[in-house]
Amino acid sequence: MDLATDPSTLARRLTQIGHRAGLDRVGIAGIDTFATVRSSIEDRVASGMSGGLTFTFNHPERSTDITQSLPWARSLVVGGKAYLPEAGSPAATVSRTGRIARFAERDHYRPLRSALGEIAAALEAAGHRSEVVCDDNRLVDRAAAVRAGVGWWGKNTMVIAPGHGPWMLLGTVVTDAHVEASEPMRRDCGTCDACIPACPTGALVAPGVLDARRCLAALLQQPGSIPTEFRAAVGDRIYGCDDCLEACPPGGRLLDSVGSTRGRVSIEYILTASDAELLDHFDRFYLPRRRPGILRRNALVAAGNSGDVELAALVTSYLTHPDPVLVEHAAWARECLVGSGAGQPAPSGK
Asked: What is the pLDDT of residues 193-251, one digit of tens each?
């Protein structure tokens, strides 16, 4: 498709390309610094509520100003792609399995990147520079999406779009083309705060304010020990948490349309597979420094919460593991399953 140089026509044609490539939402934003978002990130870090999150939190002066990474940028073409109903829903209970959040059930970023790539290719064919920035610490993608009118910023900190709710992944094509900006969406959550009490650990401490130190999705990705006060709340989760998304009314239509059961993985597999097998099987997961021990730690907590005493022997085998974090979580899980006084005792001090 030939692209006109008129900013308005260019915006319309890029939007058409995005929709034809499979995007559910497309919007255009300018490159002005996201000053309010930068201030919010800095406040979260200063208060400790960032919980050690890295990614866009590491350098907010960069992640809120795309020109620091790409000084030639003039416009942001933002796309959103829903991953429901394709991602399915995990069955309520399946013996000796753990849950994976729907966005990570498979690599749902792949079709999003592919669609953004078609927009970038069209721009380049017309003589413009472009770069796909998707799940990338150079840009706070939610801020770009809200400015581009893809959705509004919900009280659960997610971008929420009509008809899709929070069940979307976001990405951006940065370009040196002058593209007419979209109007931000004049909507918000109003009086609805269904997501706030839905959080199992109270991590949503106020509308739009997340304390990452309490967020299960964050805790399950980070290295080190999961605080004992949150381990029961982990339940059978292995990676991610969908509770605040499930409670969001605008996403109800998509959630109700799910007809497939997916998103469960064997606890026994995680606790017996090799490092190489785990990294290959879950290559789409974010694991700091590619540490498969994080998944084993999560699986031990899920095992302890399962009440399935047949997992006790496998859990007990981790009491002699060289990783002290896994030993600690195995001792906790074993006590949950059979009590610390039965069979092989937990190591002293654990």
From this structure: 999 999 999 999 999 999 999 999 999 999 999 999 999 999 999 999 999 999 999 99
225 token code pair: 């020990």
Q: Say if residues 248 and 156 touch (Cβ distance below 8 Å).
A: yes
Task: Give the predicted TM-score (pTM) of the model.
Answer: 0.91
Tokens 């095992």, located at residue: 303
Is beta strand 168-175 parallel, antiparallel or unpaired with respect to 130-134? antiparallel
Contacts of residue 279, defined as CB under 8 A and 6 or more positions apart, other chains included, come to: 287, 290, 292
CA distance 169 to 55: 16
> How many Å separate Cα 324 from the centre of its chain?
28
Per-residue CA distances from 143 to 17, 159, 304 (Å): 22, 9, 39
Strand stretches in 83-161, DSSP E: 97-100, 130-134, 152-153, 159-160
Q: How far apart are CA 223 and CA 73, in angstroms?
A: 35
**Rounded Cα gap, residues 308 and 70, in angstroms:** 53
- Of the candidates 188, 171, 187, 165, the one whose C-alpha atom is nearest the C-alpha of residue 245 is 165
Which pLDDT score is estimated for 288?
Answer: 85
Cβ atoms within 10 Å, residue 172:
28
| Domains of the chain as residue ranges with CATH | 7-86+106-175 (3.40.109), 201-240+263-338 (no CATH)
Q: CA Rg, the chain, in Å?
A: 22
Neighbours of 329 (CB within 10 A): 28
pLDDT in tens, 301-332: 999 999 999 999 999 999 999 999 999 999 99
Using CA atoms, how far apart are residues 140 and 63, in angstroms rounded to an integer?
Answer: 6
Give the tens place of pLDDT for each residue, 71-123. Answer: 999 999 999 999 999 999 998 878 899 999 999 999 999 999 999 999 999 99
Inter-residue contact 28 to 78 (CB < 8 Å): yes
With 90 as the cut, is the pLDDT of residue 31 above it? yes
Rounded Cα distance between 216 and 244, Å, is 11
